[in-house]
Design brief:
Structural class of chain A: alpha/beta
Distance between the termini of chain A: 57 Å
Mean pLDDT of chain B: 92
Strand order of the largest sheet of chain B: 6-7-8-3-9-10-12-11
Oligomer: heterodimer
Number of helices of chain B: 12
Number of strands of chain A: 12
CATH class of the largest domain in chain B: Alpha Beta
Distance between the termini of chain B: 35 Å
Strand content of chain B: 15-25%
Order of helices and strands of chain B: EEEHEEHEHHHHHEHEHEEHHHEE
Number of domains of chain B: 2
CATH architecture of the largest domain in chain B: 3-Layer(aba) Sandwich
CATH topology of the largest domain in chain B: Rossmann fold
Radius of gyration of chain A: 21 Å
Low-confidence stretches of chain A: 1-17
Number of helices of chain A: 12
Order of helices and strands of chain A: EEEHEEHEHHHEHEHEEHHHHEEH
Structural class of chain B: alpha/beta
Largest sheet of chain B: 8 strands, mixed
Chain lengths: 344, 325
């Protein structure tokens, strides 16, 4: 695999200060469950995302981690406005996009893109790689002519470390890692500033994951990209993110810089997640104290009262059953939603 | 010293495919001692699952065929048994836990019935007695309210609870060997730890051996006594877990360890990936299967297959060169 070739730096990356790319305020995404065919009645609500807030500056990576049903993918889709937010605010590069209609979202979508988990399902098997990567250029009319289109596609192919002659092939001719590179090239076609990566390496073989993780990091340096990196593998998230939000049943339970989160987790759920992940070293494992939490993640359809983690929490108090702890800023970029740390 | 509980000798399993004959498992040999946990670690297509299925003689034929080798279990060669004899061992002396509990359970039968079945089948217990045994088994795998849950169906269980049911079924006849093929890959992280801890604890209690098939080096480090690393259908390195992690000697094992981010690893360090793609079984190179991706491959590696040799006590590697971290 040749080294990815240099691309002229993203103009927006130049002079990248500490400006905010995306801000989410008290975002809620609820899905109504309805019954009846003609007259639909709402019978219940799935609170997939229930009041989360964070901000992300240019060039940074926010890791969103949590187990199934925690709302991490829903958050990503809501920021892209591929799902309708129920409440709250989404601000992208200074513009409130929460209520933008399709027409107004169109120019904004160019600047926010997504890389999906499944490199097999997310590429159209009947399209050549050239057209998969070039489709966004055609849709948004950014290539002046056929030659500019070809050149841009060739540039993107080199950028992600594929070979130029691969443009004329179909997705089935590629391995999982190569397909994920194709998906990344497509996402970068319109020079986005924000890329939302939804479990981008979890379907890949272990030896291939590192190739793709390194590619993400190289592209970030070169193009000044901002990432939201969604994954359940904490070791990968820790590797790539500078800030990490731990989610549980639709809420952020802890938000911290990566070093602090791993060194001194504050929320009992963060602690449990870290303890559950084995370290690839038998001697470390033999020494490690690891409290295993009981039970399984509850349902977002009928989440537990109070703190949603309380039925599984080894440190739960009476208060946790009735009062939901708020995500409270502890200073130094750290916030936690737990009565152990936030009540006076 | 007592002979090992399981001895696999030169196991070779092939599959017919559109692209010709594939050798999924190629002359694989290893032992499992009484009470020991052995992990086979490898990526997709490495042959780790086919090895497990071959031991149990569960390779669908056609297209698959166990071509050569022997599997000695409690002194019997499993490949020489007739169908009735192997059925008497499967689920009885050797039990298996699969990755996807939902597709391994019958959706139309109650959980109690399915856990009771092996007790009835292999132990000849009357159904009432087998059912009582099932209740006790569900309790042992910590399913709360076991007596009431017996009558429930698999879809009424969560993913983690279903895998507990699979473990209960596997334990039903007090097997000497449990083969667990990626038993937690489909589960959430915190539930994975619960299930693996439970499997390990129960095997320790009953003194049975465990063959753990996984792609996760962390899981191996936490649970295995001994490890075999597979690549392209062959074992490329095998050693006691502590030795393997401390001093890996095959370039593939070294590459895997450098490419996986660790929770306790240095922050900001670039991962060192293994270049290239996993091997294509239909187009394996004539020499070492790893040679196209290997940083230290030399001329002999491309033409001859390195045999698995003991380079230090109990530490075997299949490499002509001297690879070190």
């Amino acid at each position: 695999m040749p080294a990815p070739e240099a691309l002229p730096a993203n103009p927006r990356a130049a002079g990248a200060g500490n400006d905010e790319v995306v801000r989410v305020d008290d975002l809620k995404v609820h899905f109504p469950l309805t019954k009846g065919t003609i007259i639909q009645r709402r019978v219940a609500t799935v609170q997939a995302v229930d009041g989360i807030s964070f901000a992300l500056t240019r060039g940074g990576t926010l890791g969103l981690v949590g187990e199934s049903g925690c709302g991490k993918s829903t958050t990503g889709l809501a920021i892209l406005r591929m799902l309708e937010p129920t409440a709250g605010r989404i601000v992208f590069e200074g513009e409130d996009i929460t209520f933008h209609d399709k027409e107004r979202m169109r120019p904004i979508r160019r600047r926010m893109q997504m890389v999906y988990q499944d490199p097999y399902g997310s590429l159209n098997p009947r399209m050549k790689v050239r057209d998969i990567i070039g489709e966004p250029l055609a849709v948004h009319g950014t290539a002046a002519n056929a030659r500019a289109y070809r050149e841009r596609v060739a540039q993107l192919i080199r950028l992600v470390g594929l070979l130029p002659d691969m443009a004329e092939r179909y997705p089935h001719e590629f391995s999982g890692g190569q397909r994920q590179r194709i998906g990344i090239a497509r996402a970068l076609a319109l020079e986005p500033s924000l890329v939302i990566c939804d479990e981008p390496v979890s379907a890949l073989d272990v030896s291939i994951q590192a190739q793709v993780v390194n590619l993400f990091m190289e592209l970030q340096e070169r193009l000044g990209l901002t990432y939201i990196f969604i994954a359940h593998n904490l070791a990968v998230v820790r590797h790539i993110s500078d800030r990490i939000a731990v989610m549980y049943l639709g809420r952020i339970v802890e938000l911290a810089n990566r070093a602090e989160l791993y060194k001194s987790p504050l929320h009992p759920y963060t602690e449990a997640l870290l303890a559950a992940i084995p370290v690839a070293d038998p001697e470390v494992e033999a020494r490690r104290a690891r409290p295993i939490v009981k039970g399984e993640v509850g349902s977002a359809l009928n989440p537990p009262s109070g703190c949603r983690f309380h039925p599984r929490c080894p440190k739960a108090m009476d208060k946790c059953k009735s009062v939901a702890p708020l995500l409270t800023d502890l200073g130094a970029g750290r916030a936690v939603a737990c009565h152990l740390h936030t009540s006076a | 010293m007592a002979p090992p509980l399981l001895q696999v000798r030169n196991l070779t399993t092939r599959f017919n495919s559109e692209r010709g004959q594939l050798t999924a498992v190629d002359q694989v040999s290893f032992d499992i001692a009484e009470g020991e946990t052995v992990a086979i670690v490898g990526e997709s297509g490495s042959g780790k699952s086919v090895t497990a299925l071959s031991i149990m003689r569960l390779i669908p034929s056609p297209p698959g065929r166990i071509e050569a080798g022997e599997v000695l279990f409690e002194g019997k060669d499993l490949f020489k048994l007739n169908d009735a004899e192997i059925r008497a061992i499967r689920g009885n002396r050797i039990a298996m836990i699969f990755q996807e509990p939902m597709s391994s359970l019958n959706p139309a039968l109650s959980v109690g019935l399915q856990v009771a079945e092996p007790v009835n089948l292999h132990r000849g217990a009357a159904w009432a007695k087998a059912y009582a045994a099932a209740r006790e088994l569900l309790g042992r795998v910590r399913i709360p309210d076991a007596a009431r849950r017996l009558a429930s169906f698999p879809h009424q269980y969560s993913g983690g609870m279903r895998q507990r049911v699979m473990i209960a079924m596997a334990l039903a006849c007090q097997p000497r060997l449990i083969i667990a093929d990626e038993p937690t890959t489909a589960l959430d992280v915190t539930v994975q730890a619960q299930i693996l801890d439970l499997i390990k604890e129960l095997t320790r209690e009953t003194g049975s051996s465990l063959l753990l098939i996984t792609h996760d080096l962390g899981v191996v480090a936490r649970y295995a006594d001994r490890v075999a690393v597979m690549y392209g259908g062959r074992i490329v390195e095998t050693a006691p877990a502590r030795v393997l992690y401390k001093a890996p000697r095959h370039p593939y094992t070294l590459g895997l360890m450098a490419s996986v981010p660790r929770l306790d690893g240095e922050v900001g360090r670039r991962l060192v990936p293994i270049e290239g793609q996993p091997p294509d079984l239909a187009e394996l190179p004539p020499g070492c299967a790893f040679s196209p991706r290997c940083r230290i491959a030399s001329e002999p590696c491309r033409t001859a297959r390195p045999p698995l040799t003991e380079h230090a006590p109990q530490h075997w590697k299949a490499c002509f060169n001297d690879a070190r971290a």
